[in-house]
Write a structure and sequence with these properties.
The structure is a homotetramer.
Chain A (H helix, E strand, L loop, with lengths): L10 E9 L4 H11 L4 E9 L4 E9 L7 H14 L6 E5 L5 E6 L4 H11 L6 E7 L5 H6 L4 E3 L7 H16 L5 E4 L8 H6 L4 E5 L11 H8 L3 E8 L9 E8 L6 H24 L3 E4 L2 E4 L1
Helix pairs in contact in A: 3-8, 7-8
Chain lengths: 295, 295, 295, 295
Amino acid sequence: MSTTPPNSDRRYVITFGCPDRTGIVARIASFLAEVGGWIVEAAYHTDLDTGWFFTRQVVRADSIPFDVEELRARFAGVARSLGSESDWQVADTGEPRRVVILVSREGHCLYDLLGRVASGELDVDLRAVIGNHESLGDITRAHGIPFHHVPFPAGDPAGKVAAFARLRALVDEHDPHAVVLARFMQILPPELCAAWAGRAINIHHSFLPSFVGARPYHQAHARGVKLVGATCHYVTAELDAGPIIEQDVIRVDHGDTVADMVRKGRDIEKVTLARGLRWHLENRVLVHGNRTVVF
Amino acid sequence: MSTTPPNSDRRYVITFGCPDRTGIVARIASFLAEVGGWIVEAAYHTDLDTGWFFTRQVVRADSIPFDVEELRARFAGVARSLGSESDWQVADTGEPRRVVILVSREGHCLYDLLGRVASGELDVDLRAVIGNHESLGDITRAHGIPFHHVPFPAGDPAGKVAAFARLRALVDEHDPHAVVLARFMQILPPELCAAWAGRAINIHHSFLPSFVGARPYHQAHARGVKLVGATCHYVTAELDAGPIIEQDVIRVDHGDTVADMVRKGRDIEKVTLARGLRWHLENRVLVHGNRTVVF
Amino acid sequence: MSTTPPNSDRRYVITFGCPDRTGIVARIASFLAEVGGWIVEAAYHTDLDTGWFFTRQVVRADSIPFDVEELRARFAGVARSLGSESDWQVADTGEPRRVVILVSREGHCLYDLLGRVASGELDVDLRAVIGNHESLGDITRAHGIPFHHVPFPAGDPAGKVAAFARLRALVDEHDPHAVVLARFMQILPPELCAAWAGRAINIHHSFLPSFVGARPYHQAHARGVKLVGATCHYVTAELDAGPIIEQDVIRVDHGDTVADMVRKGRDIEKVTLARGLRWHLENRVLVHGNRTVVF
Amino acid sequence: MSTTPPNSDRRYVITFGCPDRTGIVARIASFLAEVGGWIVEAAYHTDLDTGWFFTRQVVRADSIPFDVEELRARFAGVARSLGSESDWQVADTGEPRRVVILVSREGHCLYDLLGRVASGELDVDLRAVIGNHESLGDITRAHGIPFHHVPFPAGDPAGKVAAFARLRALVDEHDPHAVVLARFMQILPPELCAAWAGRAINIHHSFLPSFVGARPYHQAHARGVKLVGATCHYVTAELDAGPIIEQDVIRVDHGDTVADMVRKGRDIEKVTLARGLRWHLENRVLVHGNRTVVF
């Protein structure tokens, strides 16, 4: 599905954070200039509340006279000199991005992602789809993607623990860059939230922080809101409270029943999830506390 | 400011609600047809949860061979025959719509409304602006509108009670169709909420129900949302929980400070309030429980 | 795929147009009331430029004591009495809505529609997908829908004429309620526009009337617009000039290449087409000259 | 109106363009680092079509140990070394931004800008408002701003030439950073377009390139579009064809008359103009051919 791009399209993506001070941009830019790095995209941000500096730099791989491991080794020195031991990453767009998708019965987000993968728009190595129902198995397999059915027995705590263990094993064997909860209706236990921290991406069908938890469209209808929304966010142990990557809304009116809201909301959910996932996989999303910088 | 329109532009606006059943449209339409009423706008809605029927009909005044009082008297019979003693109204666009605006220090909503009134876009009889600060007095008076300064002494409960009494007197002498809280930063006491029920319109600077109460942009910034919003709603005794008339949102990103959010949000607040107020004054908003039908 | 709904969900949808005058609503509503018709949705509009009146009424089928043919026969008399011989329709939601989709290579609209059909969101009888390329055959067949490949030979006028004849035959055998040009990149000849008038629905990848014709995203990029759009419209003989059903836009900026615009635009194209198609199939769209009324 | 900000808020804003190559970011960032410059905002862009590089850097004034003239002198050397003699600027936020506004009769954009100036949101030195009608004189003077009435006699070419000469004199005496055409309904002659190139900002009441020229809402209504828009752009000799700074749209439907479109459109026009003007005055807009980079 995903292949190494021609050399001229291959990029190294550097993301980096450290306490703000003068000279950071110069230090990084000079390092890149010295090795001949051709910057094709660069973004900076300083969080004024915390005095934290963020940057994302995209460099043409063919402008660097050594491989990505060497780049990482050298950049580690730059980062250390700026006071950052570990808050940085050098990604290589030549490495396929491995993705696993979790679903329940609602298929609109899965369909949407499968279509984007099939057309090449979303250039990922989609390793597996895992469902707690079987209903989305056929469409997944029609795309040549493995589908695993992991039932979550209602009212059976031990069965659920076992199901989560199996889910985890099925996911972790792929060491995915992203675990996408594409309307997966089970709440991840804290240990999975921890294991997949910064990689598990959920789409919640409301404009968070409104309407946390179950049946948000019912809540929205009861409150009489005039717009409904969707929120793509990283999963954390607190339900629907993780760092927000992207949100969008769509207009509703008094003529819309809950079912109409559900239908209209789907169109927002799927594009919001797809945008958030793309940005995550392009290393555009830097998490800082409970907020995100999206470059 | 507001004058009786030429006869051909004058309209009678009938709003009506009753338990749904067959024949309602026929009953009302036949009544209008029999007296020669020329309907220029008509809207219907049935709330499926409660089985309540709503309609709004706009009739050319010059098509009705008698005056509005006679129309009201006759329509009362129609309403009664459909099981509705009091859930109806016949408004006359020839009667100026009296409005009083309450403000604090933030002027963007007031400026916006004054501009709409001055240009004739908002065809109202703006009777007074009342501020708990003096700062918006000059611009109000420059428009030829009386401004009253009613200070609300902080930390002085008795003083506040007196201030609200004075506020109420200043408002009630105009018997306004709308009391507009245009970023008025005092919380109305329950008795004022009751006295102005269905007429007091507030603009809250968040996408309710998110970020109720004070400093919603600070709350929004802390949560890291990607859109901020504004909500125009009727005031009820529960803070920021009244029936929503209109909402809108605007995109923000990680580069936006709280001050930026405040600035961007203002553009949404003022247009959302202006839309909501216009719809209210055109009798387009029918309240049903805690929700609105906006025809 | 599509089944007759339970009786209580079945609806008769009356659409009607005539020169405006008093008494139309009363005439139609009284007719419905006399036969016991339970109106669940009603909308009215008068075009002030042309003095034309439009209405759409939705009636519970189980409230009418006879069948839809009898309703049509009786309503014909009502229509005639209001001066309308043919500008009306009585649709029965119990009759499946037959749809044929035309595609080329770009699959995002087709994927989107297939997903909506599979989930039951779009309740249609999808009879066939016809492509001038083979590339979307597999996904179509995976959904159990017949796919026909009709090549359009470039630079071969006679071959094109034959291809359009074959296309027409493949479509017309289903007598579809809608022929959907889901990014079908061939320009329909006038005789097909005429044959499918009011049924052929196109999605154009620009905010019409900007950027008519080929490569609209390239045109948009060259002009430096800050939003790109999509337009769902009825096909007429003049290219991209038919009555507009729905439009939407998405923000772009200087960082977006033409390829980025193409990608972002797809998300707008597919939802705009899906909304327009739904409204068409629900008989919500009334064409009047080159404009539409969308109830 | 505008005062020098406290030292810690004062910024130097560097904008710069040159042919893309490696080492540009390093060169500029190193220059700034060497003089102790504290970068608070930085943005980069490379136009792939033309191979042109753009950057905007915002530096704390109090981090630079010399004045802005010295900074300009030194930066000139940096620019020259990167192949750019003149495609750069160093702005000082401590220098008030002089603005002149041109109006006709429609006041919504002027009202909006006056309100933003009065509240301090738009921190400019508004030197004058010039109208070809007298009608907006009172509101202008109520804000303490000089108003000049320059009539443009219809059907009198010589009179128009004289009026434009007077207009030019009234504008040029202020050497403004921005000449804002806030619904000024006269078409600037080519020599004024040239004289004010890159400083004359217009708001056009359509989503350009649709509906160039007169009465765009009438054109929009006739075409039956479902959204109307507004475009803020630099004025060039070709009518409504200059580089676009910002655009926005608002939804309309079949129920909206031309007058309704005009009214709804105003809300978009005024906020779109205000955004575009703010970005221009903050040196966020870099013009490149007929397109803009908006940092």
